[in-house]
Design goal:
Layout: E1 4-7, E2 18-25, E3 28-37, H1 40-50, E4 59-66, H2 72-85, E5 94-98, E6 105-109, H3 110-114
Parallel strand pairs: 4-5
Antiparallel strand pairs: 1-2, 2-3, 3-4, 5-6
Length: about 120
Amino acid sequence: MTTVALIGSQKEAEEKESSSFDILVDGEKLGVGTVYYASEEEVKAFRKYLKKKIKQGDAFKIKIVLGKVPDGPVLLKIRDKFLAEFPMCDASRILFLSGEGDKAVPLTDGKKLEEKIIGSC
């Protein structure tokens, strides 16, 4: 059975714009996930244009950069782990990217992952 762990600290979200987590799958680091928290301006935009009720400091976007891309079921487990930690974040706002350093190629988002669409973001 595949085990997914997120290693990092979750401090007071209102004080920060983002936080980073190392992604471990069966003890091996596959990449880094960055969680972005809503500012006051973003909260107003979400309420006005998207009709979503979020509060300042809620996670609204997660960007996952993977050095080594696992198969679909493991990607689903990574997505589910982030959704369990940050339930206010919508699955479509979880972005998977492949690459290291400055170059990152979009793979998919959390919503398309359910339909097994990988490699076309």
